[in-house]
């Protein structure tokens, strides 16, 4: 996979970065934690511009997240959940993931879209509850772009700092991502239990 990412960036430049980041949202096993740090490494070599790399990554990521938004908008919660349970194994998505994202989204409103784009494991699927909740497309794009630009810039900067050791970025992010996901899951369980007790 690494060689394919390198070849795509080398041959297509900024367009390649945008394309890879779009695919990363559509096919989650393609990791942004590898794409953008590699792009950051190319900046250290003088082959690319940091700002243009971040812009390309943001555009691609938001474009890749948009189909998930439309999926949620036109199919609704129940149908999206059923489809995720039936076909989601190919995309590492389950109906339970859809429901969790919806609960998280409802608690935080539109800002959940921006915040969700910063959290590994949620960043791809936060588009589903945005669509399910009928969030206006223009606001979805704006909030998605805001969150994504921070995430992409962070990864690009990490690649720039790590240099030729850019692959270590994903290694350092993995335990942090796990802790964040456990925290979100625990907070969601606490919130559900608290609502049942007080209702």
Automatic annotation (TrEMBL):
InterPro entries cross-referenced by the UniProt entry: DedA_domain, VTT_dom
Location in or out of the cell: Cell membrane
Pfam families attached to this UniProt entry: VTT_dom (PF09335)
Keywords recorded for this protein, A-Z: Cell membrane, Membrane, Transmembrane, Transmembrane helix
UniProt entry tagged with the keyword Cell membrane: yes
A Gene Ontology term for the protein's cellular component: plasma membrane
Membrane disposition: Multi-pass membrane protein
Membrane-spanning residues: 12-30, 50-71, 137-163, 175-193
VTT domain mapped to chain residues: 30-160
UniProt KW Membrane keyword: yes
Family: Belongs to the DedA family.
Protein name, entry field: Alkaline phosphatase-like protein
Originating organism: Hyella patelloides LEGE 07179
């Amino acid at each position: 996979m690494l060689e394919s990412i390198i070849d795509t960036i080398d041959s297509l430049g900024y367009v390649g970065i945008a394309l890879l980041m779009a695919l990363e949202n559509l096919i989650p096993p393609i990791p942004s934690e590898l794409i953008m740090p590699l792009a950051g490494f190319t900046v250290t070599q003088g082959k690319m511009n940091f700002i243009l790399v971040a812009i390309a990554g943001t555009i691609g990521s938001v474009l890749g997240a948009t189909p998930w938004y439309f999926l949620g908008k036109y199919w609704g919660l129940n149908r999206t959940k059923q489809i995720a349970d039936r076909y989601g194994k190919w995309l590492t998505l389950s109906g339970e993931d859809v429901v969790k994202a919806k609960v998280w989204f409802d608690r935080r409103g539109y800002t959940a879209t921006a915040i969700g784009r910063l959290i590994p494991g949620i960043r791809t699927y936060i588009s589903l509850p945005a669509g399910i909740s009928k969030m206006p497309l223009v606001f979805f794009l704006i909030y998605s772009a805001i969150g994504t630009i921070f995430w992409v810039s962070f990864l690009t900067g990490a690649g720039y700092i790590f240099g030729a050791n850019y692959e270590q970025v994903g290694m350092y992010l993995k335990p942090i991502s796990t802790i964040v996901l456990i925290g979100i899951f625990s907070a969601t369980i606490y919130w559900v239990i608290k609502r049942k007790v007080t209702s």
